[in-house]
Amino acid sequence: MKIRTLCAALALLAGAACGLVPQKGHQLVQHDLGGGFRALAQKPLPLRSVSVSATPLMAGLNMNYRDASQPTTRGAYAFNRWAAPPANLLDQAFNRVLPQDASGRCRLNFLLSDLLLEIDEAGSGSVLLAGSLRLSLDGKTSIYRRIVDIRVPVDPVEPEALALGGRKALIQLGELTSNWISGQIDTFCRAPD
Predict the structure, then answer these.
(1) CATH 3.40.50.150 is held by the domain 28-189
(2) How far apart are CA 76 and CA 78, in angstroms?
(3) Domain ranges of the chain
(4) pTM for this structure?
(5) Beta partners for 50?
């Protein structure tokens, strides 16, 4: 009898203990821009180097959003982060997208000022990739500069869409940059024969 009572008591305690075990919480999810980027230009651009830097606002790993109902507030997703600072992710991909000719005279830098998910009044989302392209001969003094403001619509409005939209925005940035340099700037950046 005592053994049965003891077994029943142990079974009750074991069942109660199962309720005390913490439930699995939210897992931190890391995002990047994916792989498989291909060169966009037909021929290498006359660029000695391509780099991406960032304003201090973009130096962290937070995946940010802005809701139209609070236009001056940046939100950060609690359980989603970039795998590396956005400037590093963009730099890796940008160098794959833009083929370079090391004999070129110019250096290209993209100064990233924003990469976030914007949510409008209707609840629709778009990824904003904003910054400035700076072209220089020595890497310091800008000769040409172009402001960039690329928006890519995304659905659904969630952190994964920010990463996918960021990838699409980077490809658009590569196309825009390639066309810009291939056009009016190509001759200037090519080394004189």
Answers:
(1) no
(2) 6
(3) 28-189
(4) 0.82
(5) 108
